[in-house]
Amino acid sequence: MALHFLVEDSGSASTGDIVSLTGAEAKHAAVVRRLRVGESVTIGDGTGIWLDGEVTDVSASRVDVRIAGRAAIEAPEKRLILVQALAKGDRDELAVQAACELGVDEVVPWQASRSISRWEGAKAVKGRERWTAIVREASKQAHRAWVPEVSAPLSTGQLIAHADGQRMLVLDPTATLRLSAVEPDDRDLMLIVGPEGGIAPDELEKFEAAGAERVRLGDTVLRTSTAGPAAIAVLSATLGRW
């Protein structure tokens, strides 16, 4: 399979044009992946534009690609949104990376009351930038035409307001409704995943008061790093994406 690259200003390119990879993207292509003249690659802008092309020139700081084909990929009608509670170590980052590869359409960092990790001030800015970089690289690896958005970190109250018009599904191992039994409607699906210590009872009450449904994945309890990706996989099959 051809290597895939992201160039934000490539959306206006058409057949016959030259699109250049520069900066870190060029270094990755030329030095790390050792692209050669004549190889086929794909290029996207992260918002649905898909370009097929052939490498015409390679240097450590610039890789030129002549475009042979262009397509516009429609965004999914029903979006999958992962609300990932901040977690210690890299567990939340692992969840974000895998969820992006599996097809999530938006990622929302959630400052849950039981989150050990706290994003405040400059750390919140750096944290969002870090997740955005993870999402970008995972999208390239998965050859995705649409790169998921990473929102600013939200509190529980902010999250409920952010979910207006969306169907909230709270992953809870004590719930009676299985996620595989959920019948989609015309709303986007928002999956809410708690931190290591689980979602606090008062937060569950607030979610349910806002119309959220508690759902379970099965008979076992998954880590915060695996619950979201597993749920994305289940819903991808339910929505007919897989």
TrEMBL record:
<dbReference type="InterPro" id="IPR046887">
    <property type="entry name" value="RsmE_PUA-like"/>
</dbReference>
<keyword id="KW-0963">Cytoplasm</keyword>
<dbReference type="GO" id="GO:0008168">
    <property type="term" value="F:methyltransferase activity"/>
</dbReference>
<dbReference type="GO" id="GO:0032259">
    <property type="term" value="P:methylation"/>
</dbReference>
<dbReference type="InterPro" id="IPR015947">
    <property type="entry name" value="PUA-like_sf"/>
</dbReference>
<comment type="similarity">
    <text>Belongs to the RNA methyltransferase RsmE family.</text>
</comment>
<dbReference type="Pfam" id="PF04452">
    <property type="entry name" value="Methyltrans_RNA"/>
</dbReference>
<feature type="domain" description="Ribosomal RNA small subunit methyltransferase E PUA-like">
    <location>
        <begin position="21"/>
        <end position="67"/>
    </location>
</feature>
<dbReference type="InterPro" id="IPR006700">
    <property type="entry name" value="RsmE"/>
</dbReference>
<dbReference type="InterPro" id="IPR029026">
    <property type="entry name" value="tRNA_m1G_MTases_N"/>
</dbReference>
<feature type="domain" description="Ribosomal RNA small subunit methyltransferase E methyltransferase">
    <location>
        <begin position="78"/>
        <end position="235"/>
    </location>
</feature>
<dbReference type="InterPro" id="IPR029028">
    <property type="entry name" value="Alpha/beta_knot_MTases"/>
</dbReference>
<keyword id="KW-0808">Transferase</keyword>
<dbReference type="InterPro" id="IPR046886">
    <property type="entry name" value="RsmE_MTase_dom"/>
</dbReference>
<comment type="function">
    <text>Specifically methylates the N3 position of the uracil ring of uridine 1498 (m3U1498) in 16S rRNA. Acts on the fully assembled 30S ribosomal subunit.</text>
</comment>
<dbReference type="Pfam" id="PF20260">
    <property type="entry name" value="PUA_4"/>
</dbReference>
<protein>
    <recommendedName>
        <fullName>Ribosomal RNA small subunit methyltransferase E</fullName>
        <ecNumber>2.1.1.193</ecNumber>
    </recommendedName>
</protein>
<keyword id="KW-0489">Methyltransferase</keyword>
<keyword id="KW-0698">rRNA processing</keyword>
<keyword id="KW-0949">S-adenosyl-L-methionine</keyword>
